[in-house]
Design brief:
CATH superfamily of the largest domain: RNA polymerase II/Efflux pump adaptor protein, barrel-sandwich hybrid domain
Shape: elongated
Number of strands: 8
Oligomer: single chain
Strand content: 35-45%
Length: 125
């Protein structure tokens, strides 16, 4: 049976963010958390799916920019992904190296930029 919730550190790892970032998101209301009996943060599997964009129905068509990865620059834990979108426009996203490796992003492959507030997430196609 799949897990229903994750500890804050497990959730941060699955989201490719730091534990401090997860805590800030929680305080700002950007991520839904609950607390266990010891008052530790828990994040539901569904919330992680929502934030990772694994359930496409959570995003509207107007915030999706489909295109092609034109460049990936990796510097330690951070990676810059450049996407030439079909609409014509250019989107550059700063993401973790783990995310680039997990998605297998490389120049020339199709990808989708998901724009939400001031953040841009990159989905491999």
């Amino acid at each position: 049976m799949p897990r229903q919730s994750y500890t804050a550190s497990e959730a941060a790892k699955r989201l490719g963010i730091s534990l401090d970032t997860l805590r800030r998101w929680d305080r700002a209301g950007r991520i839904a958390t609950t607390r266990d009996g010891s008052n530790r943060r828990l994040v539901s599997a569904k919330e992680i799916e929502r934030l990772r964009g694994e359930r496409e129905e959570h995003f509207s068509a107007r915030n999706r920019l489909r295109g092609t990865v034109t460049d990936v620059k990796i510097d330690g834990l951070i990676a810059q992904v450049e996407l030439l979108v079909d609409e014509p426009a250019r989107v550059v996203a700063i993401v973790t190296t783990d995310a680039v490796e997990e998605l297998g992003l490389r120049a020339g492959m199709p990808a989708t930029a998901v724009v939400k507030a001031t953040s841009v997430m990159v989905l491999g196609s």
